[in-house]
Design goal:
The protein is α/β, with parallel strands linked by helices. It has eight helices and ten strands.
Length: 238
């Protein structure tokens, strides 16, 4: 997925100016995050804009916003939004999420993020990649506080992280009143340890708790049926 573009069934992602190219984490989150009556949606750290575009496809009556701090990623996501079939419902903001959450009074029904999660780890020489991968610019605490400010009382916040970082976020959420609503484990193959977790949190314990798992590949290397089913409306070869 490191090409200069990636073609979906209904839209195209240009990504040559983005330090972090589109990956599996993003498309799984974009296909899975849900809230039945969402009318306004926010993607934090939108990058190429792929998650926001997937949500615009899935929620035809919703307005979809993205916020992105890195200038070139912001410019590229804005281009991808403009060229999409849903450009009249999409808007992107060039800002740090901490500033955005403090300056906007609107409340979102659905908030999603594939956030930077490396903390106190060795960095590359590419500053733009470091911004996308490491939490220097957006700590878990800042992410949580901003989401609390912007999420509606009935809304849900969905995110994807490695299991260790998700445990840290769960602790922060529990301390501040967020309630875990959904949890899905992502495994590369059946029988191996999960490498990612997708969870949703709300301000109230108001939805039936659900859990599940998504397996990416069969032993043969072919895409697993659970992964195919999730992405069948998006990927050309599914």
């Amino acid at each position: 997925m490191a090409n200069s573009y990636f073609q979906f069934k209904q839209f195209r992602i240009e990504q040559d100016r983005c330090a972090m190219k589109m990956g599996t984490d993003a498309v799984i989150l974009g296909a899975l995050a849900h809230l039945g009556n969402a009318k306004i949606i926010l993607d934090i750290g939108t990058g190429t804009g792929v998650i926001a575009l997937m949500l615009a496809q899935r929620f035809p009556d919703a307005r979809v916003h993205g916020v992105e701090i890195e200038a070139q990623a912001f410019s590229q996501a804005a281009q991808n939004f403009r060229k999409s079939p849903w450009n009249d419902r999409m808007e992107i903001f060039h800002a740090a999420f901490q500033d955005y959450s403090k300056s906007h009074s609107k409340k979102y029904d659905l908030i999603v993020s594939n956030p930077p999660y490396f903390s106190n780890q060795l960095k590359s020489s590419n500053a733009r990649k470091n911004w996308a991968r490491h939490d220097d610019q957006l700590s878990l605490k800042d992410l949580f506080q901003g989401v609390w400010q912007l999420l509606s009382e009935e809304g849900l916040f969905w995110l994807i992280m490695p299991l260790r970082e998700m445990r840290l976020f769960r602790d922060l959420a529990g301390e501040s009143g967020f309630s875990l609503q959904h949890e899905y484990l992502i495994r590369d193959r059946a029988g191996v340890n999960p490498h990612r977790e997708i969870c949703s949190f709300g301000k109230r314990d108001q939805y039936p708790k659900t859990s599940g798992e998504i397996i990416l590949k069969q032993a043969s290397g072919q895409a697993d049926s659970s992964y195919r089913e999730l992405l069948k409306n998006f990927l050309l070869h599914f």
